[in-house]
Automatic annotation (TrEMBL):
Keyword set includes Transport: yes
Family: Belongs to the binding-protein-dependent transport system permease family.
Topology versus the membrane: Multi-pass membrane protein
Matching CDD domains: TM_PBP2
Limits of the ABC transmembrane type-1 domain: 105-295
Protein name per Swiss-Prot or TrEMBL: NitT/TauT family transport system permease protein
Residues annotated as transmembrane: 21-40, 101-131, 143-163, 175-195, 227-246, 271-293
Organism: Labrys monachus
Length: 309
């Protein structure tokens, strides 16, 4: 029996099965990024390495590499240092202490979720108006698009200055910035979804003498639901970014944005910056996963193809 005959068919070997799904390719990309990250530590941290180890140039490459990936004040932190800082901040600090990433994540999350709810509702209302009223489509849609050309870094201090004079709680400007980044993808996605039914389907509803409300709830809304969930997954990530950006210029003592700013300003807190950055990324990924789970459940209950995956 030849070697070719003994070989497993393509896609049936363990490696083939692993790469056929989504986890395998993602793991390969993550491993490549981590490897490149470690290799970048030596040249990026060379100045700090020479300060910590004056005879670094005479050491072997392996010694230089090990020292470079364990420097506490290098320009770039090694992945294992970031993981250690995250574990320390998430699990080994008092949950409501200033050094706890759980505490800062909850502050950012409260602002982001408030803005997410407001932005999603606002986006859906705008989309319904744009789809059903020609005057709204001509007047609102250009402003919805133009609104996203305003730099958020200019909007944050302006909004803080205006709302600060009204003595509103500090969560209000942060939630409004999150709303600003949330409503646009929801509006665009819902306009696309509500107008997605085929003209023949709309004609059929008219043939049945269906009212506008019946056409909306029985045809347009089910057709728009997949677009809504796709928009919400984009919007929730934008809300996290908006809440973090809004925390930076306010001098807030809590929130992932304040931890990022502290890590940027003080060299001895450089690992804090990296830990806060990756905690924010994990927070966004977790929220997107929750929306994806809700999407599968809702679409499966509606009998939409792909909802049960």
């Amino acid at each position: 029996m030849t070697t070719e005959a003994l070989a497993l068919p393509a896609g049936r070997s363990p490696r083939g099965r692993l790469m056929r799904g989504q986890a395998g390719p993602v793991a390969v990309v993550v491993l490549a990024i981590v490897a490149a990250w470690y290799l970048a530590c030596l040249p990026m941290n060379w100045d700090a390495l020479q300060r910590a180890m004056p005879d670094a140039a005479s050491r072997t490459l392996a010694e230089q590499f090990v020292a470079a990936i364990n420097l506490p004040d290098g320009k770039i932190a090694a992945p294992h240092q970031i993981v250690a800082a995250m574990v320390q901040g998430l699990f080994f600090e008092p949950p409501f202490g200033r050094r706890s990433l759980v505490y800062h994540s909850m502050i950012t999350l409260s602002s982001a979720l408030s803005g997410f709810v407001l932005g999603a509702v606002l986006g859906i209302i705008l989309a319904v108006l744009i789809v059903h009223y020609r005057s709204m489509r001509k007047s609102l849609m250009p402003w919805v698009i133009i609104s996203q050309t305003i730099p958020i870094l200019a909007l944050v201090p302006l909004l803080n200055a205006v709302l600060g004079q009204l003595d509103l709680p500090i969560i209000v400007p942060k939630a409004l910035i999150a709303t600003y980044l949330c409503f646009f993808p929801v509006t665009v996605g819902m306009v696309k979804g509500l107008t997605s039914p085929d003209p023949m389907q709309l004609d059929l509803m008219r043939t049945y003498d269906a009212s506008k409300a019946q056409t909306f709830w029985k045809l347009r809304w089910p057709a728009a639901t997949p677009y809504l969930f796709a928009s919400l997954k984009i919007a929730i990530a934008g809300c996290i970014v908006g809440a973090i950006v809004a925390e930076m210029p306010t001098g807030a003592q809590g929130g992932l944005g304040s931890r990022l700013l502290a890590g940027y300003q003080y060299n001895n807190l450089r690992l804090v910056l990296w830990a806060a950055l990756f905690t924010a990324a994990l927070l966004s990924a977790g929220l997107i996963s929750l929306i994806a789970l809700a999407e599968r459940r809702v679409l499966a209950s509606m009998g939409v193809a792909g909802g049960g995956r």
